[in-house]
Fold these 2 entries.
Entry 1:
Amino acid sequence: MFTDFFFVLKKKGVPVTITEWLSFMEALYKGYFQSSLNHLYYIGRAFLVKSEAYYDMYDLAFQEYFGSIETSSLELDKVMEWLENPLHRLPKLTPEELAEFQKQLEEFRKQHDMEELMRQFRERLKEQKERHDGGSKWIGTGGTSPFGAYGYHPGGIRVGGESWMQSAAKVAGERRFRNYRNDIILDVRQTKMALKRLRELKREGAQEELDIDETIDKTAKEGGEIELVFNRSRENTVRIILLMDTGGSMLPYTELCERLFSAATQMEHFKEFKYYFFHNCIYQDVYEDMANYKRVPTEKLFSNFHKGYKVILVGDARMAYSELFDVNGCIDYFYTNDKPGIEWLMRIRQHFPHSVWLNPTHRNFWGHYTVDTISKIFPMFELTIDGLKDAIKALTSRTRQPVLN
Amino acid sequence: MVDTGKGYRGSEYYIASKPLMEIVNVAIALGKPLVIKGEPGTGKTLLAHSIAEALNKKLIIWNIKSTTKAKDGLYVYDTVQRLNDARFKDKDISDIRQYIKLGKLGQAFKSDEQVVLLIDEIDKADVEFPNDLLNELDEMSFHIPELDEEVTARHRPIVVITSNSEKELPDAFLRRCIFYYIEFPDEEMMERIVRVHYPDIENKLLREALKRFYWIREVDGLRKKPSTSELLDWIKALMLGGISPDKISSEIPFLGTLLKNEQDTGRFVRLSNAQGGFGFKKRF
Ligand SMILES: Nc1ncnc2c1ncn2[C@@H]1O[C@H](COP(=O)(O)OP(=O)(O)OP(=O)(O)O)[C@@H](O)[C@H]1O
Ligand SMILES: [Mg+2]
C-alpha cells in the first residue's frame, strides 16, 4: 500500500532515498504511528523530508495519496500487508533501483529480527482493534484520545500552527510551507547562503604563512625539536561584478533584486565585489548609482578587470528590438550609442568568460526575441534559489559555453 | 510514545508542540540523531535542555564555531602540555593517556548513563564537518590511535543537532538523521510561551504586545525580524516600565529592544511614516 507513496513523493520532487524509506518502515514496524494519519504525516515527514524547502512537495504528495481517506484512521491490515511483502508492488523501479532496494532490504533483515518485529506489530494491531471496539473514539482525535491526553498542556491542541485536531490531509491541504520552496522564494538569507557557494579556495603565492598549530604539533611530537611548518595562505579568490538592470519593466521585480543586491553587498566573502547599473541594455556606459547619473565607461570594465572576474548580469532581457540591435537604439532619448547594445553584450561575454544572466521573469516568458537572443550570449537562469544555484555552478565550472556569433 | 505514559512531553519551562514531541520520542526510540532547524529564537537550543530536564538526563553541550573540527569532539592530544612537561623534567611523560582529553562526543560516549548530547549550530562549521562525524555517529564509537584504544558508547546518547541553515547540511548526513523544522510560533503558541516566562502578565498588555509584535514581523525587507527572545525582552521592558497597553497601540515604546539594527529601525520608521521604501523604487 505505502510503496506507491514513495513514488508520489518522488514525482512531486521530494528527493527521498531508499535508505530513508527503510528507516521510515522501521518506525512503522515498531508502531510509532499509532495508526493515525496525523502520526503518519509528521513521522513520515521527519524521516523522508530533510529540508523545509521540500515540505510543500510533501504536503502535495500527502494530499494526493491520502487525501481521499475520509477518516483519519489508517487501515492497519493494509500496512501489515505491505510490511509482510515489501517488494510486492514495485513495478516503477529501474533495475538498478530494484537491486539497491533489495540490497538494503537484506541489510534491514539482517539488522532486525523480523519475526519479532512482526509479532510486536500484530500485538499492537490487536490492541488497537480492541480499544477501537471498546467504543471510545481514539484515533487521531488529539485532545480526547489517550494520545492526546498525553499532550502535556491540556488546553493546547493547536500549537505553533501545527494542528493536531485537524486531519492530516487537511493540514497538508493548507500548504503552509509553500513559501519555503526553493523554486519560488528568494530572501536575503537564502541568497547569502547560495552566494556562499561562490568560492574558490586557493592557496596562492609562496609558502609564507607559518602554520602555528601544525608547528607546535610537529615540534611536540618530535619531543621538542623545533619543526617549522609553512603554508600558503588560503583564501576565497572570487571576484564578482554585478550588473543590474533598473529599467521600467524590472519594476515588479524590485523587491527580488533588492534582496539579491543586499545579500551580495552584505557578504564579506568575496575578494572583490563591484556593482554597476544599466537601463534595459548596456551601451558604452554603465552607472555607479541606481539613478544612472554617475557614468563609468563600459571600456573601463575591460581595462580594469581581468577575465578571471565573474560577472552576474541581472535583468529581464526584455526590450524593444531596436534597443538591442540598432545604433542609437537606446531607450533614453538624449543618449546616443554608435554601437548597438548587442555588440557590447558580446564584448562583455568575450572578455569575461565566467558570466551568467539572472532573469527574474519565469522561464515561460523567455520566448521574447531579445530575451532569446541574450540567452544565447549568456547562460540564463531564473532568479530563484534553484536558478541562482545553477548559475553559481555555471560560474565556477571550468568549461564555458560558446559565445553566439 | 507507544506507551502513552512515558516519553518526552515538554517540560515546565518549554512549550513543545505535539508533533515535535512525537518526533523527539521517535528519534529517541530509534536512536537516531535529531536535526532541528528553524528561525533564530524558535527554541531549538532550549529543546535539548528541555529533553534533558524532562527525562532527567545529563546534558552535554558541544557549541560549534567556524573553526571547530570534527576531531575536537572526539579527543584532543595535548601535545603542548607534554612538551612543556618534557622540558621541565619533573613529570613522567611516558604515559600519553594523561595528555588525551576527551571532547564532547567522547564524553557522551564514555558516560555511565545515557546523556543528551546537543551539537549546537552545526552549520557554523565548515561544510565538511557533518560528514566527518558520520562514522562516529553511526557506529557510536571511535578510535584513538595514540593509545590504540576504541571508545565505544556505553549508552547511545540522545543526539540533538541544531542548525540555522547558514549552510546546507550534506545529504549523506541528513539521510541518517530525523529532521524537524520548527515553525515560527503562531499567536496562540506565543501567548503560552510568554506566559511560561511571565506567568503574572496582564492579559491586555500581552494581547496588545503580541499584536504589535506580529505586525512588525510583517514589515517587508527587515534584515532581522524580531524573534521570541526579542519579544520576551520587549515585554519585560514594557512591564518594568509600567507601560499601559493603550500606549503600545499608539506608539512603540522601547522599539530598540525589538529591532536591534539601525537600518531596520530606520526602515521601519520610514515605512510607518508611509513614505515608500528603498531608493530603488523611485527611479524608473
Ligand atoms: N517553545 C518555547 N518555550 C519556552 N520558551 C521558548 C520557546 N521557544 C523559544 N523560547 C524562548 O526564546 C529563547 C530563545 O530560544 P533558543 O535559544 O532555544 O532559540 P534558538 O532556536 O536556539 O535560537 P538561535 O537560532 O538564535 O540559536 C529562549 O531562551 C526562550 O526564552
Ligand atoms: Mg540556539
Note: Chain B is about 45% helix and 15% strand.
Entry 2:
Amino acid sequence: MARVHNWQLGREMSYWYPASRPKRQFAAVFDVNKCIACQTCTLACKTTWTSAPGQEYMLWNNVETKPYGFYPLGWDVKALELLGPQRWRGPMYEGRTLFEAAPKGERVLGWRPAQRDYAHPNVGEDDCTGAIEGGAHIQTPHMVWFYYLARICNHCTFPACLAACPRGSIYKRPEDGIVLVDQSRCRGYQECVRACPYKKVFFNPMTGTSAKCIACYPKIETGIQPQCFENCIGKIRLAGWLSHPDHAQEDNPIDYLVHVRRLALPLFPQFGLEPNIYYIPPVHVPRPYLVQMFGPGVDAAVQAYRAAHKDPDLAGLLGLFGSTHRAISRWQRQANMISGIGTHGAEVVRVPLREPIVIRDAFDSTYGVQRTNTP
Amino acid sequence: MTLQRATILFLGSSTLLFAACGPAKPDSPPTEVRVVKVEKAPDDPGAPAWHDVPAYQAHLILQDLVEPRLLQPSTTTLAVQALSDRTHLAFRLAWADDSEDAMPGPARFSDACAVQLPSRLQADVPAPQMGEAGRPVEILYWSAVQQTRADGGLTRIQDLYPNATVDHYPFEALPVQGDETAHTRMAARYAPARASGNQVAQKAKEPVQALRAEGPGTLAPADFGPVCGQGDRTTTGWSVVLVRPMPSYLLDHQAAQVAFAVWDGGNGEVGSRKMRTGWIPLAMEK
C-alpha cells in the first residue's frame, strides 16, 4: 500500500495506489435541508442510463429517508459496524479507514450486499425516529426526526472500487476526476461492489458486468450539469469542481462552500475515500448522528447555515443552486445580484440576492372578483 | 530472481525429477496429464472416448499470492483427462461441488474452471499464476453461468427472477417496434458492456472462453482459435469438457506444462479468489 494525504482526515493514510489527483475534480454540494424526496433525480437518472434488462434495481441516484432508509439495505450501518470505533481528535481522524482496516488477503474492508438487500429501494421512506407525544411542540433539534439523503457516486479521490478491482477495470479520469468502470474490461467479479462503502457500484446479471454513476460525463464535458442536478425540483444541488484545500479559490462556488465557509461536508469521511459529493447537513437532526455521518465539522456548518440569511455572500451563492442547467465554475456577487460563470468563462446565470415579493390585493378590481390563493 | 520465481523453478524441477525416476507401475496413478490420441476429440463430458483415459488427480492449492486472496481451501482435488485428434486438444475436468451455482446476481458467483497452457514452448515456463509480462499464457475458461447462457437461459429478467414485472424498456417503445436496427441500437445504449464488445457481456453461444494473460489482472480475450465445450452437473459436482485448437508445439510429441483453476461460486469464489494448481507436466501419447 502507498501513503497518501487525505485532507478530510487531516492526516496521511494507506491506499492501494500512490496519490494521483486529477487536473480538476468533479464535485457537488447537496443542500439536504431542501430535499423533498420527490425522486425526480432518481427518475432522471434511471430513464437516461439504467433502463435495460438487468438494470431494474440499479439506482445510480437514489434518495433515502434517514435514519431508517437504505439502498441497498443497511449500506451505511453495515460499514460502520465493520469498521468499529471511529474517533476524531478535532479535525484529525484517529480511527482506521476502510483501507487500513482491510483484513488479510483483502485490499479493502468491504461486504457484499445480497440480492434481498436490493429488493426494497423504498424501505424506511418517511419513517421518523419515533411517535410524537400528544401536546408536543417542535423543538430544535427535533425530538423525532428524519431527513432525505440524496446519493450518487461520490467520485472519490481515493475510490475503494478502483482500489479493489484486481483487473484495473476502474479508472479515475485525469481531466475531471470522474470515476468510471471500463465497460469493455469489466468481468463482473463484483470486487468493486464489495469494496464501495456507499454501495454505488451495481452488478448487472444480464450482462455479467458492473456499472455505476458516470456523473453524466457527456453533459459535463459540454458544461452542463448531470441529469439528477438539472432535474432537481428542490434545487438542492450544485455541480462544479473542487480544488485541493491548499489551492481553494473563493470565486469557485464549491471551494467557497467546502473550504472557505466549511458549510458543506463529506459523507462518512472516516471511510477514507475522500468523497467529492458534499452535504449541507440538516439543521434539525441530533448532532451525534450528524457527526457520525458528516464528521466533526457539523456544528460549525449548521451554525453557518442558520446564519446564512444574514450573509449576502452565502445567501447569494445558495441562490445559485438550481438556477441554471449550466455547470458553474465561478461566481461573483455585485451588490444584490449574484452571477454564475460557466465552464467557458461566460456568465450563464444571474439571480437576485432576494427574489422580489409582490403582494396582490385580495380584490381584483378589473374583473370585480375576490382573489383566492391556489397552491 | 524473485522468491516467487525461485519457488516456481524449484517446484518445476522437483516435478521433473519425480517424472524422470522411471516408468510408473501400471496401476499407479498418473504423474502427468497424458494426452491420449483419438479419432475425434469430443466436446461432450459423457462421450465414451473418455472412459479409458487415465485421470490425473491434480492437487489444488489456494491462490494466495495476489489480493484479493482465498484464505480457506475449498475444492482440493481435480480429476483431469486429456484427448487429442491432432487438430484439437480436449480436457475433461471433474471435481466435487455440493452446490450448483449457475445463475448470476448480486453476491452470487458462478462455479467455474480453467485450463492454462504457455503460449509458446520454453524450458523456463512462465509464472503459473497467469503468466508474466512478455511471457503470456493461453487460458480456456468455462463457467456454469456461461453454460446457462449458452443453453438458452438468461434471456429475460424473469429467467432470473420469475416474479419480476417490468413496465417498459425503452427499446420496446413504439417508434422502434418492427425496426430491428433501431431496436438493437436502442438496446445497445443501455448495455455499454455489450456494445463495447466485452466478451463477458455477449450473448454466449459457447460456455467456454478463449483468453490470454501476462500476469494476474491482465486476462483478455485471445484469438488462438475457436473453443468449445460443455459442463454437466453430476451427482457429486461438475464434469466439464474444454476444447481448443491443438497448440502447434504439442504436434511434435513434445512435453509441455498445464495448469488448472477451479472456482466454487457458492463459496464466493470469483476472479483471483480461486483454487489453482502449479504447472503440471503434460505429455502427448506417442
Note: Chain B has five helices and 14 strands.
